[in-house]
C-alpha cells in the first residue's frame, strides 16, 4: 500500500496546476507570470507576531472597498485570487454531484480547484474570436453551481462582451453563482462588472494585488459580492487567512498615494504593450498578435515550440500555450520593462537570421 494509493481517487488522477515558478528555467528575463516587472518598496509597520491576525483585516477591507467603490460588507480578503476560486467551489458545489462550467482556453485554476474538490468540470469552448458561446452554455447548465468567466481572459487577453456577461447573469439567476475573474481589470477599469453587484445577488468578482499592484509575493486577493454570498464564503475560509505582514503591506498599498502610483505604472505598461505589440507584429516568425486589454500579449508563431525553446535557452522565459485548447503555436508574453521588451524582440528577430 503506497501513500499515493491511500489518497482520494480524484487526487491520484489530479494534474496539479503548472505554475510559472514550478516550470522553472534559468531566467534573466521573466515574462511568464504576468507580474509587474519591478517591486514597490514597503516597510513593515511593526514586528510583533505573537498574536493571531484579525480574521479579516479591517483596514484592508475598508481600503479595498474604497478603491473598488463598494461597501466593506461586499469584500472578502483572501490569500490571493486563487483562494477565492477555491472557496467558491467549496462553499457552493456538492462533491461528486455538482459541476462548475468554464470556457477554455482560460485560467487553469478553475479546473484544478474543482478536480481537487471532486467537482465535475463542464467546458464550453470560447468562439473563434474568444467570446462566450451562450447558446451552448445555456444547454449545459444542468448541475452547474458555479460558472467561471475571466475578463480580460487569461491567456487570450480580450474582454468578454458585457452584454453576454449580463445575459448569462440573467439566465443563471437563482440557479448558479457567476464568478467574473477580474485579475487584470486595472488595465481596463471601465470594463468592471462591479456596478452590477447591486443587480445580481449571484455575482462574485475575483480581484488580486498580484498583477497591477505589483504584489504577487504578498498573496492577497479579494472576492467582491453581496453580503449573503460573502457571509457564505466566510464560513469556509480559514480562521486567520491573512498573515500580519501581508495585511500590513496590503493596507499601505491601498492608500491613495500608492493607488495613484499604480495608475501611473499601469499607463506605462499600456504604452509598453502598444510598442511591444507593434514590434512583434513586424517579425517574420510571428503570425499574429492578438489584441489585449491586459498586461500580456498572446502571439501565434510559425513554430511556437521552437521560438519558446530558443528564448528559454537564452534566459528569456515566456509562457508556452501550445497545450491550451485551440492555441497551437501560441505563446503568452508578459509586458515587461521597455529594456526587457526590446530584448524579446531582438531575440526573436535573431532567430530569423540564423
Ligand atoms: C493571476 C490570476 C489570478 C489570481 O492570482 P493570485 O496571485 O492568486 O491572486 C486569478 N485569476 C487569473 C485569471 C489570474 O491570471
Automatic annotation (TrEMBL):
Enzyme Commission no: 2.6.1.9
Pathway: Amino-acid biosynthesis; L-histidine biosynthesis; L-histidine from 5-phospho-alpha-D-ribose 1-diphosphate: step 7/9
GO biological process, one term: L-histidine biosynthetic process
Positions carrying N6-(pyridoxal phosphate)lysine: 211
InterPro entries recorded: Aminotrans_II_pyridoxalP_BS, Aminotransferase_I/II_large, HisP_aminotrans, PyrdxlP-dep_Trfase, PyrdxlP-dep_Trfase_major, PyrdxlP-dep_Trfase_small
Catalytically driven reaction(s): L-histidinol phosphate + 2-oxoglutarate = 3-(imidazol-4-yl)-2-oxopropyl phosphate + L-glutamate
Broad enzyme group: transferase
Gene Ontology molecular function, alphabetical: histidinol-phosphate transaminase activity; pyridoxal phosphate binding
Keywords from the named record: Amino-acid biosynthesis, Aminotransferase, Histidine biosynthesis, Pyridoxal phosphate, Transferase
Pfam family name, one: Aminotran_1_2
All residue ranges annotated as the Aminotransferase class I/classII large domain in the record: 30-348
PANTHER family registered for this protein in UniProt: HISTIDINOL-PHOSPHATE AMINOTRANSFERASE, HISTIDINOL-PHOSPHATE AMINOTRANSFERASE-RELATED
Similarity remark: Belongs to the class-II pyridoxal-phosphate-dependent aminotransferase family. Histidinol-phosphate aminotransferase subfamily.
Subunit structure: Homodimer.
Protein name: Histidinol-phosphate aminotransferase
Organism this protein belongs to: Mesocricetibacter intestinalis
Gene: hisC
Amino acid at each position: 500500500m503506497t501513500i499515493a494509493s491511500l489518497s482520494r481517487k480524484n487526487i491520484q488522477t489530479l494534474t496539479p496546476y503548472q505554475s510559472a515558478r514550478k516550470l522553472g528555467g534559468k531566467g534573466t528575463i521573466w515574462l511568464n507570470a504576468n507580474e509587474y516587472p519591478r517591486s514597490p518598496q514597503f516597510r513593515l509597520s511593526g514586528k510583533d507576531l505573537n498574536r493571531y491576525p484579525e480574521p479579516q483585516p479591517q483596514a484592508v477591507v475598508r481600503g479595498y472597498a474604497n478603491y473598488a467603490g463598494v461597501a466593506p460588507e461586499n469584500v472578502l480578503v483572501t490569500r490571493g485570487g486563487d483562494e477565492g476560486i477555491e472557496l467558491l467551489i467549496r462553499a457552493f458545489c456538492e462533491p461528486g454531484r455538482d459541476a462548475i462550467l468554464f470556457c477554455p482556453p482560460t485560467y487553469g485554476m478553475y479546473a484544478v480547484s474543482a478536480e481537487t474538490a471532486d467537482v465535475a468540470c463542464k467546458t464550453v469552448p470560447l468562439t473563434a474570436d474568444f467570446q462566450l458561446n451562450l447558446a451552448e452554455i445555456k444547454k449545459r447548465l444542468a448541475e452547474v453551481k458555479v460558472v467561471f468567466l475571466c475578463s480580460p481572459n487569461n491567456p487570450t487577453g480580450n474582454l468578454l462582451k458585457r452584454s453576454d456577461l449580463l445575459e448569462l447573469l440573467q439566465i443563471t439567476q437563482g440557479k448558479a453563482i457567476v464568478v467574473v475573474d477580474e485579475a487584470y481589470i486595472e488595465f481596463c477599469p471601465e470594463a468592471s462588472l462591479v456596478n452590477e453587484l447591486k443587480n445580481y445577488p449571484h455575482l462574485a468578482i475575483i480581484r488580486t494585488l498580484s498583477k497591477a499592484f505589483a504584489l504577487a509575493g504578498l498573496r492577497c486577493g479579494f472576492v467582491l459580492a453581496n453580503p449573503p454570498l460573502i457571509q457564505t464564503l466566510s464560513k469556509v475560509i480559514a480562521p486567520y487567512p491573512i498573515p500580519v505582514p501581508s495585511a500590513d503591506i496590503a493596507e499601505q498599498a491601498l492608500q491613495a498615494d500608492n493607488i495613484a502610483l499604480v495608475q501611473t505604472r499601469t499607463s506605462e505598461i499600456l504604452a509598453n504593450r502598444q510598442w511591444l505589440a507593434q514590434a512583434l507584429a513586424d517579425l517574420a516568425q510571428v503570425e499574429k498578435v492578438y489584441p489585449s486589454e491586459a498586461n500580456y500579449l498572446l502571439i501565434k508563431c510559425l513554430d511556437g515550440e521552437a521560438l519558446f525553446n530558443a528564448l528559454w535557452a537564452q534566459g528569456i522565459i515566456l509562457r508556452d500555450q501550445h497545450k491550451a485548447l485551440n492555441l497551437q503555436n501560441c505563446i503568452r508574453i508578459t509586458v515587461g520593462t521597455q529594456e526587457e521588451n526590446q530584448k524579446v524582440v531582438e531575440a526573436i528577430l535573431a532567430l530569423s537570421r540564423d
